[in-house]
Batch of 2 targets.
Target 1
Amino acid sequence: MKKCMAANWKMFKTKKEAVDTVQQLEASIDSNLPSDREVLVFPPFTAISAVSDALSENSSIQLGGQNFYPASEGAYTGEISPEMLLDLNCTYALVGHSERRHVIKEFEEIISQKVDFGLQSGLKIILCIGETLEERNQGKLQEILQKQISVLQDLSEDNISARLDIAYEPVWAIGTGEVAGPGEIQEAHGMVRTLLQNVFPEEGEKIRILYGGSVKPDNTAEIISIDNVDGVLVGGASLYADKFSQIALAGS
Ligand code: PGA
């Protein structure tokens, strides 16, 4: 299984900044990226088209959308559809990122619709999950992960591991500089693996589980060597081409 090294640019970068960053990134990783790694970039919507045009034809960088609405088209002011992302050469989309859950107040019902509709539309989905510090301190880690993974329970298992990844991102580690320790990552990823195997008895062991939360060039190699860590989803450090290229190539 290829490790997935993903950059989530959140609400950062104008078109020009995004193009400059992706071109620098492409120049530093293209000839060095091992064949068992995949690099994804999630620009803000307004820069996807320009970034897509700026990439070389055989680029090793794939693009994704940070969000979408679960309908093909319609009267949904301010939203965009999976088809619109596919039209801009996006192959992936994030669903259920912590900032959408906690800032925009998306709950399991819409998250479940998005996973379902996004997959049906032909996007590959990275479902983001993770507990808050309060939930962790109350001993609710497993309960929360189970609830968040339950949105997958009605999906067909058919080839699901080629279309779905999970990103485990403890909310208390996102953008805080506080990284979960190797033991905490191993424990949570092990739980996620078991929960995935419960939902998908055949495919569950092949679904990639990315870690996210203050991933940096100097902690990536250790993080991706932990059992059941199949890549990283990076926010802050991914905004800089030099840092993210070190992350994408770390330990290779
Ligand atoms: P961070 O963000 O790397 O800035 O902690 C991770 C994420 O939100 O995906």
Target 2
Amino acid sequence: MNILEGKTALITGGSRGIGKAIAIAFAQVGANVAFSDLAYDEQAKALEAELKKTGVKARGYASDASSYMDSENLVNEVVAEFGSIDILVNNAGITRDTLMMRMSEEMWDDVIRVNLKSAFNLTKAAQKYMLKQRQGSIINMASVVGIGGNAGQANYAASKGGMIAFTKSVAQEIGARNIRVNAIAPGFIETEMTARLPEDVKNGWVERIPLKRAGHPEDVANMAIFLASDMSSYITGQVFTVCGGMNK
Ligand code: NAD
């Protein structure tokens, strides 16, 4: 079922993890896929080749999502090359975890800049085109800790809580132009971001998950397909948890 056929998607932080899984899933259901990451490296080139094998148009870009200029240039380049931007996935994100007592100003600023300001940058640049097209779907990658908080992640949780409030606000601004904005709040998903957590912490998370396993990036990608497609055409301003029932 090629439910995204004819649509162009841009995914930030797309070279690995959840972003990569979304890029592959979108291509498999017919979307042309542009993805960005800090570098256009071997990883990005390999993904670009993998996406092209499905028969869609695909290209990786080096672009820092936390930079306003980079983001504007990226969106302009994507539209020039692909002809439109129908789906934007604000996925780029980082962690700089520690207790407040030890958190430096830099750790706070970096996380807010990469996780939250990036969504402003890309949404601002993309909405210009989506407003003209009178259609679009924006998907913001939040987190369950943006809903429930988490000790040791005050910066990260604040950025993700901000992402949720941003989602709801922009949805109210541009809904009348048929542009939808939703957030996905993943729980504990196995990627490089979570690989560095100590084993006992990871086991502790799994214990508390009713489905008794960590999530796979593909679990998040399936929700992204739904939100990107016309199957969700009456859904905007919502937050969807993909967390095995954990509900932090
Ligand atoms: P990851 O670290 O595996 O991948 C993140 C990607 O973003 C990397 O390729 C990285 O290079 C890129 N990136 C970082 N800074 C960037 C920047 N300034 N500009 C462009 N790209 C940049 O992480 P992941 O687990 O795949 O996470 C993806 C998103 O999902 C993040 O927003 C993360 O906060 C969110 N999330 C992840 C989990 C989880 O358990 N893994 C849970 C909830 C939310």
